[in-house]
Amino acid sequence: MADRHSASLVDADLLHLLRSWFNRGFLSFSPITWSSPADLLERVIRHEAVHNIHSWDALRDRLLPADRRCYGFFHQSMPGEPLIFVEVALTRGTPGSIAPLLASDRDVLDAGAADTAVFYSISNCQDGLRGISFGNFLIKQVAEDLRRELPGLRTFVTLSPIPGFMAWLKREHGALAARIEPLIDNPAIESHRDKLLQACATYLAYARDGHNRPLDPVARFHLGNGASIERLNWAADGSAKGLRQSAGMMVNYRYELGRVEDRHDAHAQDGTISMSTAFRRVFGRRWPGSTAGDQHAR
Q1: Pairing label, strands 295-297, 250-254
Q2: Residues 153, 197 within the same domain
């Protein structure tokens, strides 16, 4: 018991030290472009954690077009090694499916015509620094920079996976999960659409870990950063990974820059989750104790 206690103290001290070394003041923010050094681009391919990059052509499609951006944080002691990077699509309107964003034959949008910035992939590159959060600083920095570059941008959202949903469904609603799994890649799954959307909305809004944080790791990250749940999207990710993790559903989290800090504080204080009326309608009823406009779950 004493050994475990001592080890936990050492872990806490080490985490504190790493947070000091890797605080925002020592980080540099930089775009990653198709013209970046080849070794940096190789690291982007290797560390992409959400939507695999299978070739250099696929990487070019994410970096070169006028409606695509990528940004990273770097530490001054290792300037060619990103700590974290985010990929951004500039669109008109909030997308509800990942395939059109990644399609190689899509029509490229003039950046000045975009009204929405979509954070569709965020990847940590250093396994040893997983206890240190860089993503909250990165998203806010990217949003501010994009707003200065492109004044026409009005909306900042993610298109996010829901990696823990099916595992939760098996634990909490085993009978439904058993009916769903054989139909995951079958059009017959459409007959379970309403039940799955309602179950997933419940998971995102109410499933908590032992510290009263959202159980889903991606939800925990974005809601903890001050985002709100904007929309749940059916048949949004038809990849094997997306079907296995969330029956193909994805979610948009919205960052309203003028409200991020208040939402972050409310979530940190009592676990409050902000959500749109559109997301709330998935239940077909009002949230308990809710008011008009943004709704909140605790």
Answers
A1: unpaired
A2: no
